[in-house]
Amino acid sequence: MFNSTLIYGIFLMFVSTIFFAAMNAIIKYLNLMGYSSMENVFFRAFFMLLSVYSLVLFAPAIKHFVPKFQAPQLRAKKKGGFKHILLRGLLGGVAVSMCYYNFATIPLGIATAFLQSTPIFVAFFACFTKNKPSFFVIMATIIGFLGVLFVANPEQSGIPLINAILGIIGAICAAAAFFTIPQLKPFYTSEAVVAWYGITMSVVGIFGMCLNIDKMGGFIMPSLFDWGLFILTGIMGAIGQWFMTKSYMFAPPGIVSPIGYMRIVWSIFFGVMLGDAFPNLLPSLGIALILFSGMLVSFDAYRKRQ
């Protein structure tokens, strides 16, 4: 028998990629409407936080209709985890800020490709932990990243150097943030981790809007329709963050992180819906490599637990 808990963690990560890709597509649309990247960071975090606290507030009413519903537990299980959750929030805030700036200034597929280099750094950092990834998983991760490069087609993108630097910094910070999650498990529930992540990112977003940098700083009062989109990004972010956080609590980072490559597949799908050209032969080959990478990781997890 294989470890159903680990397979469950892989499934949770897969579901999170769908919600994150849909959220990023909406954020890209809001960027095109003139909203700054840090305003997107703030509203995404604020409404994500609001959605979590709404579940707490309306828990009695929800439980009336769904008896098995459990209200989110936002208080710490015990003392001693605050520095870890603060570090996770700050690292995540920097990663999201870099990523959203790229969403605003370069094509969505390329920006997502930089984000999807995160598992490479996760696998590298995992080599220094007790949950070391196998050679099989490392090779699958490299194959997946090659697929990302094919999809993004960086040699022909002509993006500015600053976007490449910010993309790499964001990926490293995101990878480091993932390794704080297992340390948080004894102190906080997954819902509490999401809530604190929202609080930290909201603060980062407020300070970021004060920056006098084109497409990064600044604030525009949203229209009624755009308010709805900002709220939707917060809800999707909360759901995606919950699935992702939960996945790292059920499985080692080196195993589940390559599944995040699927996010770029969904990004291409949503990009086509927004008017992007359908990928040609090279990106299509990349998609195949990404899917193959995820299948290899899942197969390795299954093989080890026979």
* Oligomeric state, counting identical vs distinct chains: single chain
Helicity level:
over 70%
Number of helices: 14
Mean pLDDT: 81
**Topology as a string of helices (H) and strands (E):** HHHHHHHHHHHHHH
Distance N to C terminus:
5 Å
The shape, in one word, is globular
| Rg for CA atoms | 19 Å
Q: Uncertain segments of ≥5 residues (pLDDT<50)?
A: none
Instruction: Tell me the fraction of residues in β-strands, as a range.
Output: under 5%
Q: How would you characterize the largest beta sheet?
A: none
Q: Number of DSSP strands?
A: 0
Outline of the structure:
With 306 residues, this protein is mostly helical. Helices cover 74% and strands 0% of the residues.
What keywords describe this structure?
mainly alpha; single chain; 74% helix
Give the helix/strand layout:
Elements: H1 4-32, H2 37-57, H3 59-65, H4 82-105, H5 108-115, H6 118-126, H7 135-152, H8 161-178, H9 181-184, H10 190-209, H11 224-250, H12 253-256, H13 262-273, H14 281-304
Helix pairs in contact: 1-11, 1-13, 2-4, 2-10, 2-11, 4-5, 4-8, 4-10, 5-7, 5-13, 6-8, 7-14, 10-11
